[in-house]
Write a structure and sequence with these properties.
It is a single chain. This protein is mainly alpha-helical and 96 residues long. Helix content is 61%, strand content 8%. The protein contains 4 helices and 2 strands. The protein has a two-stranded antiparallel sheet with strand order 1-2. Strand 1 and strand 2 form a beta hairpin. Helix 1 runs antiparallel to helix 2, helix 1 runs parallel beside helix 4 and helix 2 runs antiparallel to helix 4.
Length: 96
């Protein structure tokens, strides 16, 4: 058996120190890509309802996938994932 510094199993990344920093960096990066497209939809004047649907169907699952496994053990990096949700919420303010 070979020891590796980082391993991904079922979409959850864990390192050899049993820290979730690699996983949170990965999902933060994915969420940023989804939010970029959400911003483009907003610029295209897509309705608020459709923006919310996109967020709930695409962005939120990225942020919440397997969260019962890793979220409770986070400390500092929890702010990264929470800020993704907050920035998506602020996009919907455009239509208020």
């Amino acid at each position: 058996m070979t020891q590796v510094p980082v391993f991904k199993l079922l979409g959850v990344t864990i390192n050899n120190l049993l820290r979730w920093s690699d996983h949170t960096e990965s999902i933060t990066s994915k969420a940023n890509k989804c939010l970029w497209f959400l911003e483009k939809l907003k610029q295209a004047r897509v309705s608020r309802k459709d923006l919310e649907y996109y967020y709930e169907a695409v962005v939120r699952p990225v942020l919440e996938y397997a969260s019962p496994v890793w979220y409770a053990s986070l400390t500092v990096t929890a702010d990264q994932t929470d800020s993704r949700s907050n920035s998506a919420t602020s996009l919907s303010d455009y239509y208020r």
